[in-house]
Specification:
Chain lengths: 380, 538
């Protein structure tokens, strides 16, 4: 733990900053690969929709004295077709059939209660009409649209529209990955999964808001100086929030993992487990995207603004000037971000908060860590 | 932003204490339930989700029709004597869903009850009798007594006796009918309006022998509950019939009003007509005079509610909408208990792990966090109990999941704040200053982030149905609790901590010992340099 604290101090003081913004290509490629896999899985394999979406009946027998095979046979006798029968972790037997009418359903209950030696009341039943799932889905989509509109308005007012767009990109990223993993693994999609995905919307944005809030605070009045580019400041903000992000992810994921463990161990398949699995995937993706996707995307977006653009030019010019005056110094071996001409410095020095325009200090900057731009790009 | 107003932790904590005591008193007031209302997935029972569709294509469903439907379903479900049946409408208009949840009733019975279209007709009373069965051996038949009963028990619902003629066999079957049995007054067996009918009053006080129907429910064009101009005799139900109904009424009333009044075991035929809904008599008024104009009033010392109920029955005896059964879920009590246990265990494990983590990482500040988390848990539980008592909020498995997820969001508020404090300390501020400045920044972040979560919860709650709603409600509630806790508890506690000498000395137990800031120089004491502090809040 102390180790993490020390790591945090290094992050904050700029001693071991991770170049989130500068190395965005790496993260983009990573995400692109994951997204491609997710989309491909979705297109090729499709989602394994639960009974709620297709219509059908599910019977759950508590404390059965019968085997899965017994249950399957006795149900098949009634229906004339073979149902899907599974035994869940908690010793429950789950029988899943196509949509049934009331009368047939009662026969199935009778058959199961006789075969499995339990009373008819001990058989839990879920009968779902074939259109209900569509209604749930269309309502979830409605909720999604309304929420996105409202949240875009809020973020545009509270931050600015560029941050709203970047946050939405991160959100889409998380949702696609989550849904893709469902398709890839073949996990069953139930209404609880839909709840989970909807919650990810909230959580992913929540996470991004926390990070952006810091970026917003740190970049206030950024154009009044010419020491650091927007990207560099944003990168530092993300680094400073990293410990918080890690801690928050841990505290959010722990209870969700507890649900998964308890859900799988004690309850078998059910609302809790379905929900928790969707949440765990979404939360992990949400934390990743708020750091690796949302902020780099925001920076890229911001750097199109004339003010920010001219800031970057000023900063680079200034550095070039300093480097010229310090030509005799040995070269630093900081060559890993070659190739991107908008790279933020990974080793931005720790300057006092920039939000306070009056306290921006014009030094003492000891030395530039990088080669001047002209020189770095020279060999090409 | 109220920049650097001197914080008064004592006062804030007092507000928090009052709030907590108030909430606990509200939740656990003697006489009210002290546990949350549990949903069916946690206590066992049957839930049916019905989606109403307009009777005619292209029409849309009005709020009034929905309310009528719910009212009728409520009457039917209450008719089978189930306590705590819960009927709710979620959504509105064409996308509405009606959710009927009943603990411990077999599902086929419930579906039968709620989904059925009720049949309404008006019949002249032939004879009125006491509700008890007459075991009369002088009856000329001994074979058919059970026939009618058997036939009608195939269909779940009340026993009725029907025959095309008023034969002795029919009379004997009617005599054998037992109107003291609860199931026989619940309704649920549509009668054939062209045949004679023997059935019970819906309050079990009488047994009727009825002639074939002279008016069908469809002949009623309007029924309203009104208070008569004279203001005596309580509420009445005013009826308007269509041409066919008016004519039938005028004919029936002219025949009937001359007859003697009905009384148990009295004359037959007698002066009364029965309003039969779903095979039971909901009302049996007598004619005071011939009614010629197609307009009638039913008087009977009704209360406003009774009059309205009767008017509803007359208007919408047949449901104003058709109901599609979208989902039937029946959870056995055992499975319910298992799910509840599982949910609680998961929540508990989650809390314990987070407690350990926060204590290990933040140490002294972690104690504040754990205390805040604990109080947040107590408040959430109390709110569930209180809302169960007042607005009938039922806690479902999805709700528990929402609350567990919210543990993380609540913990995040502390983490954001604590990390801000540490950042401030790294920038060279004293602990006290760091606690103040850190809060100003953390507060904004917490509010913005919680707002987004709350927005998600509200949108979900409004748009969705069923489980999603329970989840959204729990998520929204716990987010609000989070804001309250962060402002009224965590913040003042941290301020108090920051003022203590012990914290300022920075031992390893505080979690703020110099070794945890790497090689950045920190000074927690109030005498720390304040160069940057002064400018910061300017």
């Amino acid at each position: 733990m102390g180790l993490l604290g020390g790591f945090g101090a290094r992050l904050y003081s700029g001693q071991s900053a991770i170049n989130f913004v500068g190395r965005r290509r790496t993260w983009y490629i990573m995400s692109a690969v994951i997204l491609l896999v997710a989309i491909a899985a979705l297109l090729i394999r499709g989602l394994n929709l639960g009974v709620e979406f297709k219509g059908g009946a599910v019977y759950t027998v508590t404390n059965p004295t019968c085997s899965v095979i017994d249950a399957r046979e006795s149900t098949a006798d009634v229906l004339g077709s073979t149902p899907t029968v599974t035994e869940t972790g908690a010793g429950l037997i789950r029988v899943q059939t196509e949509p049934l009418d009331q009368a047939t359903s009662l026969q199935v209950i009778d058959a199961l209660s006789q075969t499995c030696g339990v009373s008819a009341e001990a058989v839990s039943v879920q009968l779902v009409g074939p259109t209900w799932g569509q209604e749930i889905t269309s309502k979830a989509l409605q909720a999604l649209v309304v929420f996105l509109v409202l949240v875009t308005i809020f973020l545009s007012i509270y931050f600015e529209w560029r941050m709203a767009v970047a946050a939405l990109v991160a959100l889409a990223h998380d949702v696609v990955i989550t849904v893709g993993i469902y398709a890839l693994v073949g996990l069953q999609v139930t209404p609880a999964t839909v709840i989970g995905v909807l919650t990810i919307l909230g959580y992913s944005l929540y996470d991004t808001v926390v990070v952006f809030d810091k970026v917003k605070e740190d970049t206030r009045g950024i154009t009044a100086q010419s020491m650091l580019t927007y990207g560099e400041v944003a990168n530092r903000s993300v680094n400073q929030m990293l410990i918080r992000s890690i801690n928050t992810s841990i505290t959010s994921l722990l209870p969700v993992l507890a649900i998964i463990v308890v859900g799988a161990g004690l309850l078998g398949a059910g609302t809790l487990l379905d929900l928790a699995v969707a949440l765990a995937i979404g939360m992990a993706a949400g934390t990743y995207s708020s750091i690796f996707i949302a902020t780099p995307f925001l920076v890229q977006f911001k750097e199109r603004e004339p003010d920010i653009k001219s800031l970057a030019v000023r900063v680079h010019a200034r550095r070039a000037g300093q480097a010229r005056s310090a030509k005799s110094r040995p070269e630093s071996d900081d060559g890993e971000d070659e190739g991107s001409d908008e790279d933020a410095s990974p080793s931005a020095p720790s300057a006092p908060a920039l939000s306070d325009e009056t306290t921006i200090i014009a030094g003492p900057r000891t030395q530039p860590r990088r080669q001047p731009r002209a020189k770095r790009n020279g060999p090409k | 932003m109220a920049a650097n107003a001197p914080s008064r932790p004592g006062r804030t904590l007092l507000v928090m204490l009052l709030l907590l005591v108030g909430l606990l008193a509200w939740a656990f007031w003697p006489g009210t339930s002290s546990t949350p209302r549990l949903g069916l997935d946690l206590q066992g029972g049957t839930q049916v989700i019905l989606t109403p569709k307009p009777v005619t294509d292209g029409a849309s469903i009005t709020e009034e029709q929905l309310n009528q439907t719910v009212e009728i379903i409520r009457q039917r479900v209450n008719g089978i004597g189930v306590a705590e049946a819960e009927i709710t409408v979620q959504g509105s208009g064409d996308s509405a869903a009606i959710i009927v949840a009943v603990p411990g009733v077999s599902q086929e019975r419930l579906v039968e009850l709620v989904g059925r279209t009720a049949l309404l007709d008006f019949r002249a009373v032939w004879a009125l009798n006491l509700p008890t069965p007459v075991t009369d051996d002088t009856s000329t038949t001994d074979i058919t007594v059970d026939d009618g009963a058997d036939e009608s028990t195939v269909v779940t619902g009340n026993e009725i006796v029907q025959a095309s003629e008023n034969t002795p066999e029919f009379a004997a079957e009617v005599a054998a009918l037992d109107c003291l049995k609860p199931e026989n007054i619940a309704g649920g067996t549509p009668d054939n309006p062209t045949e004679w009918l023997g059935t019970c009053a819906d309050d079990g006080t009488a047994k009727f022998t009825l002639q074939p129907a002279f008016i069908r429910g469809t002949n009623v064009t309007e029924a309203t509950a009104v208070l008569p101009q004279q203001g005596v005799g309580g509420w009445v139900v005013s009826l308007t019939f269509d041409a066919e109904g008016g004519q039938a009424l005028s004919q029936a009333s002219q025949e009937l009003y001359t007859l003697p009044d009905c009384s148990p075991g009295g004359a037959s035929p007698c002066n009364a007509f029965a309003i039969v809904l779903d095979g039971v008599v909901v009302s049996a008024p007598r004619f005071n005079e011939p009614i010629l104009g197609g307009q009638a009033q039913i008087e009977g010392n009704f209360t406003a509610q009774e009059a309205q109920d009767l008017a509803n029955v007359l208007n919408y005896g047949a449901l104003p909408v058709t109901l599609d059964v979208a989902e039937i879920t029946s959870v056995s009590a055992t499975l319910g208990a298992d799910q509840l246990r599982g949910g609680l265990i998961a929540g508990l494990i989650g809390l314990v792990i987070i407690t350990l983590y926060l204590l290990a990482y933040y140490r002294a500040l972690g104690v504040v966090a754990v205390l805040s988390l604990f109080i947040a848990g107590v408040m959430t539980y109390a709110a569930f109990v209180a809302l169960g008592d007042t607005i009938g909020y039922t806690l479902t498995l999805a709700g528990i999941a929402g609350a567990i997820v919210a543990i993380g969001i609540t913990a995040d508020s502390f983490i954001v704040y604590f990390e801000r404090i540490r950042d401030e300390i790294r920038s060279g501020r004293s602990l006290r200053q760091a606690a103040e400045n850190g809060w100003l920044n953390a507060r904004r972040t917490i509010l913005a982030a919680d707002f987004v979560t709350l927005l998600a919860a509200i949108v979900l709650y409004i748009v969705s149905v069923g489980n999603v709603r329970g989840f959204a409600f729990a998520l929204g509630l716990t987010t609000l609790v989070d804001v309250v806790i962060a402002f009224l508890l965590t913040r003042p506690l941290v301020t108090l901590f920051a003022r203590s000498r012990w914290m300022q000395r920075g031992s390893w137990l505080t979690g703020l010992d110099p070794s945890r800031f790497g090689d950045v120089e920190v000074d927690l004491s109030p005498t720390a340099k304040k160069v940057t502090v002064a400018a910061r809040e300017g």
